[in-house]
Amino acid sequence: MKPIFKWVGGKRWYAQKACTIIRKHLTGTYYEPFLGSGAVFFSLQPERSVLCDAIEALIATYSRIREDPHDVWNWMKSSGQDSNSKAHYSLRRHRFNELLMHGTYTNEFAGLFIYLNKAGYNGLWRQNSEGLFNVPFGDYNKIKLPTISELISTSQILQNANLNCVSTSQETFDIINNTSSGDVIFADPPYLNLFNDYDGMLETKKEFHEKLAIALWQAVTRGVVILVTNTDCNETRKWYGAFADITTFNRSQSIAGTVEGRKRWNQILAVGIP
Fold it and tell me: How many structural domains are present in the chain?
């Protein structure tokens, strides 16, 4: 199944290849510490999983879809009326921020999250210094909201998932450190030198990435298979090359409204097998 969200850095294009590797080794629990749109998870559909992200609104939305996909869909459809109107988008964003600031993660909140993800610029998630969601209107000719069938399928796949919002980098490492033989980790972190600060939610500069590599190496020594993506640079090749096989790929990424933000660059996939 394809994920319901648009997401910068999403791995829809890689999901099937990742699943081929994962299915050969997964006998325990599947871990995805940087969930985002969950392209690999929704393609894999594992029996047991631990899913994490630093964006509390995203995890809350997945939780509401899991519990009540029909009502979330109703709120989403209501939010999506006149979806090509900038004025309507601004009103829906304002209502979303009212709920966000109060931590009111209801079905209405989830419906608004889905609508704003589809109608906002590039499917971005961004908050200002006050914590308000401030992604501008995408000005698309047409947006495609998920169908009720897609939300129900998403709900069903999430039934056995352990959803976690992590508020610190250490919480991410603690979850990785809890893995054991037979588990598989797919780690798709905010890339080094590209997303150096995960929108203020997680510190993701060089020190974070080095600690992540150490945590994943330790997981491999416990019998865990790891797949991790990142920028192709001297640092990542040094960290992962010591215990994992590295392949490269060249992808473009729309991370900004400028040509510079859409350039192609080399990335790595490191696969560590005990």
Answer: 2
